[in-house]
Every structure is written in C-alpha cells, then in structure tokens.
Amino acid sequence: METKTSINDVSAPGNSILETGTENSRLEGQLPSGENIVTSNEEPFECDLRRLAKPQSDEISLTAAPIIEVIDVKKSYFLGGVEVPILHDINLKVQEGEFLAIMGPSGSGKSTLMNLIGFLDRPTEGKIIIKGLDINKLSDKEVARLRGLEIGFIFQTFNLIPRLTALENVELPTYANSRSGVNTHERAKELLRLVGLEDRMHHKPGELSGGQSQRVAIARALINDPAILLADEPTGNLDSKTGCEILNIFKKLNEDGRTIVMITHDPEIAGYADRIVFLKDGIIQSNAE
Ligand SMILES: Nc1ncnc2c1ncn2[C@@H]1O[C@H](COP(=O)(O)OP(=O)(O)O)[C@@H](O)[C@H]1O
Ligand SMILES: [Mg+2]
Known about the structure:
This protein is an alpha/beta fold. The protein is built from nine helices and ten strands. This is ABC transporter ATP-binding protein.
C-alpha cells in the first residue's frame, strides 16, 4: 500500500513522501518516444510524465483538500526598522489540477506572494500549507526538500546558469534533491526532447533564444516531477508568438493534471488560466468565480 503524507509524517522522514516519492513510481517506467510538447498542436498531448490525478480509494486522502492553502497571510518588509506591509490578510485556496492566474499591476505583491507559496520566503503572519504540510511546522531542511521535490519554478528571466549546458541546467536541481529510483540524466534528456530541444541539449544559454531558454527552464522545473508549477511572468521577456508557445506548454501540462499558478500583469495571458485572482496593493480583490 502506498504511503500518503500527513503533517505528522514530517517528523518521521523515513515514512514521508519527501523521502519515498511513492506517487512518482511511474517515473521508473517508459517515457514516451516520438512525441513532444511543442509540436503537438494537432495531436492530443500524450506525455507520460503526467501526475497521478486521483488518490487510490484505500488511501487517506489529503488530495481532497486544496493542494495550496494561504491562510490569513501577511507579509511585511522592514526597512530601516520601519515595517512596510506588502501583503494584507491573503486567503487563497488552489485545488489540485487547477491552472490559476494571479493578476495585478506591478508592485501589487504578486512575486512576494509567489515566493511565499514556493517556500522561498516565510510569511510575517499566517499559514502557508502545501499538500497538507504547514511551512511553520517544518524545519529549514524539510522546507528545502518539499520545495525541491514538489514545486517547480519558472521565472521571467529564465534564471539559467550561463556556463552550464541546457542539459546540465535541467539536471541541476537533482544535485540537491531527487526522487529515488529515477535516472535523472535520462529524464533530463527526455524532458528536453518533450519541450522540443533535443538538438540544443549541449548548447549554453547564450546560444539559445528567449523561447528556447524558457523551455529549458520548464524542463528544469519538471525534473523532480513537482506537484505544482509556479511561474512568475513567464512570458514577460518573450515576443507574443513565443509567449503563446510557452503558454500552450503550460496548458498541456495542466491538462495532464499538473497544478499551475501563473503570475501576470497581462489580462490576455491570464486568460489562459481556468481562474483568475486579482491582487491590488497586497489585497485580493476577487477570484472571478
Ligand atoms: N525584499 C524586499 N524588500 C523591501 N521591499 C520589497 C522587497 N521585495 C519587494 N518589495 C516591495 O514590495 C512591493 C511588491 O513587490 P512585488 O511582490 O515584487 O510586486 P509585483 O510582483 O506585483 O510587481 C513593491 O512595492 C516592492 O518594492
Ligand atoms: Mg513581480
């Protein structure tokens, strides 16, 4: 029987999803051949990297709860001893398999909120719960492992390491965290093939276009098969055609069951999501539902 995670499991690392990665045993199986995410416009998306969307009936289901919960969160920065509030009483739930856009003008606190959801920063007040795990109850080491395995980040500026090849960039996160039983080198190659970069694997970022760089970043974000993709203005540095290709990749990954939270200031881009949450001056205005 598979092990499911509860908050209590965190104190017993040997019995934790963070250690065993039992949800991801399919990664040991065959990856698809002859398909890729980029050129499948006319064909159905058939990526075997899909997540198992539904829990087995004999498991204690935590997946019925939201995959992301932001509860009464406040975030302030302290500048010269003065508190500068950035986020005020944020409450947000994201269900597993959702494609959510967080939209708001520049300076509204979108990146701050994404960093909190991605455990890159801790809230001043309130709780962030990912897959039932409360960041406030985790050690820094547990937070790092949860982030490394369950969250894939995609940034506006791609954030690739210039001196590493595309393949090395995709493999890089696995040096810190990886799932047991996965051949990360083969998986990195397969992901690059899936995003249409088979022939660019050994190129460095300086030899890649913006769209190619963002596709490398998407492959990197997927390397540990995270439950959640967090994308902060992922098309902000791309022309609209290339941006559209990137959004289509997100759409297909989401159709395949992966939860996506995308930040944007652009209503057209937010329109790709299933649900839009509006953020203004650090306050959620509405969730369009
Ligand atoms: N590390 C920081 N220290 C102080 N202020 C910050 C920091 N990061 C962001 N801010 C401020 O918080 C506000 C929200 O920033 P941000 O979350 O980046 O907004 P957005 O992504 O919506 O443009 C801005 O006024 C910004 O200047
Ligand atoms: Mg931002």
